[in-house]
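Re: duplicated header lines in exported structure tokens

Our pipeline writes sequence and tokens for each protein into one text file. With two proteins the header for the second block appears twice in some exports. Here is an export where it did not happen, for reference. First protein block:
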Amino acid sequence: ASIWVYTLQLPWQLGADFFLRLLLDGDAASNTLSWRWVVGLHSVGKTYLARAENIQRFTNGRFAPKGLAQVAPPLNDTAHTTRPKIIDPPNRYLDGHKTGFLLHSEDLNIAHLTHHSDCIASAVYRPIDTDTMLVSSPKLLEFNNATLDAAAKHWKLNLLNCYDVDSLQAILSWALENKLEQIVTPYAPVGSTSQMLEKMKSLLGNNGIQLTQVMRAYDIVSWPYA
């Protein structure tokens, strides 16, 4: 990241986007914050300068780059980090309603959701839209599908009548076919999955179906102190 910004003089946003499209287990939050940290935007004024001697040392002499930037001045940005605040959880789970469960790659540990007894159908979200997935590498898509396969196998006793869905319209069709009144899914805070869920919330709402994103209790308590 330091070489990208200070030696190649490219925008950090472009580098962050490039990384997120290629990292197998890329995370929108940590990826963005890491790039911002390098250029002095997260820990304001503190930057990271890539040094040739460090690269040579920690690669056992395999790489000894020349011409690296000698200074790393902090960048300016109009976006500011906000102070920790109390989390306002998404919609509450509606008891006694016909419920469908949606599994997505943002959070594959659904132990906190398996106690709901109203679930009559399940679906695994496997997007094929590369704009939604931020996919630039076939390996990334393969990795994403492999993790979903593993999770679906692990939770198979909890995923009733499970289907694969690959788009918002497919999710809506699945919900209508099963006469669902709400869809429950793990909470996604930021990134492409979060953006997809916001669009899905509106689409489902127009058809009388509630989208319920469920947060873990310890996330609600601990995140304001992160």
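Second protein block, exported in the same file:
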Amino acid sequence: MPDAVEADFQKILDEYHPILYKIGRAYAREEVDFQDLYQEMLIQLWQAFPRFRAEAKLSTFIYRVALNTA
């Protein structure tokens, strides 16, 4: 993906990190499991990011992708 998309994605991750952290901690109690799950959530979000449609709130989209991954 172009650098602009990567920059946008990083800004989104910075803003919505608390959502990802909360979901990750709810499903993975051990630190190593949390790190694996968090990384998998980021991968899934990166793959789903181009399919985001503004019909829903971005926070809802991120929440659903993260929850489905967990």
